[in-house]
Amino acid sequence: MTEPNDPYRTDNAGTSAWPSQSQHDPYGQTSSPYGMPNPYGDPAFGADGSNHRRPNVSFGRAIKLFFKNYAVFHGRASRSEYWWVALFSALVNVALNIINTGTGGTNDNPTTVYLVLAAIWSLGTLIPGLSLAVRRLHDANRSGFHLFWLLLPFIGWIVLLVFFCQNSHPDAWHKYDDGPLPAED
């Protein structure tokens, strides 16, 4: 006869009730019943998704991802990824205004240099900005169609600001992660 904690015993003690998980537990511990937490804090099947959050990114990595995922409207973008790009865009706009002022232009009468540079920047970041906004909405478990709030002045902008500031929703990965983004590094 074998000892109670003998890993070579032939009875079913310490095994899971599910056929796909019927491997013998060499430590003699029983599997947790359905609905009970797993021993030692192990993740369970169908976990809450908290480990599926998009990682926080640094300033440089956010800018790199912004341009690499140029027209990717699926997937998700973390808050840090979105707000680092927003800061970068604001800094570029400040630099463009400094160029305008330095070349003798004013807000009422901008210089040609400023107009050309501002047009290039605006056209070059329109599609990546929209795709990043859609991915940020996906991370908050919202549809990308919420961008139509932009058509409603002031109120719509405030609504979108609230959506962009929301935490990552733990279940958003179920709906919006249909594979990795083309560039994640």
UniProtKB/TrEMBL annotation:
The chain crosses the membrane at residues 82-100, 112-134, 146-164. One of its GO terms (cellular component) is plasma membrane. It comes from the Bacteria. Residues 12-33 have a biased composition (Polar residues). Keywords: Membrane, Transmembrane, Transmembrane helix. Residues 1-47 are annotated as: Disordered. PANTHER family: INNER MEMBRANE PROTEIN YHAH-RELATED, INNER MEMBRANE PROTEIN-RELATED-RELATED. This is DUF805 domain-containing protein. It comes from Cutibacterium porci.
